[in-house]
């Protein structure tokens, strides 16, 4: 996909801004990927130090055996976040993270009864990761360096 296909067409209200928007496109996308990946890794860093610590919580959601799902949750957040930030195996890492976040939407909205207000951050993060599931990483990524991506 070319950058022209990624952006809506039409004339800018302030045409002089076109060069800035065009020049910052890759930077903005890379910044979003790196920040999202690092935020996910930081969030998962507490879990990775005790990878079985969430076993009871995941079993309460119906995921059995809890030890397995807790380990997968910890690894998905921590290592998946690092992969997303680096832009390595971006699509599968973002997909796994998106699934985790959709489960947290269910947890907060339905299980905890918090509705949209409780699930809002998870919805936003799931949407960000969905973007990278579809888009993949851009030219500023390890995927691009190796010339292969999912």
From TrEMBL:
Keyword Electron transport set for record: no
Domain of life assignment: Bacteria
GO CC annotation, single: plasma membrane
Family: Belongs to the DoxX family.
Transmembrane segments: 68-86, 93-110, 122-138
Record's keyword annotation contains Lyase: no
Subcellular location: Cell membrane
Topological type in the membrane: Multi-pass membrane protein
PANTHER family hit by this protein: INNER MEMBRANE PROTEIN YPHA-RELATED, OXIDOREDUCTASE CATD-RELATED
Main location: membrane
Keywords assigned: Cell membrane, Membrane, Transmembrane, Transmembrane helix
Species of provenance: Kaustia mangrovi
Pfam families: DoxX
Cross-referenced InterPro entries: DoxX, DoxX-like_oxidoreductase
UniProt protein name: DoxX family protein
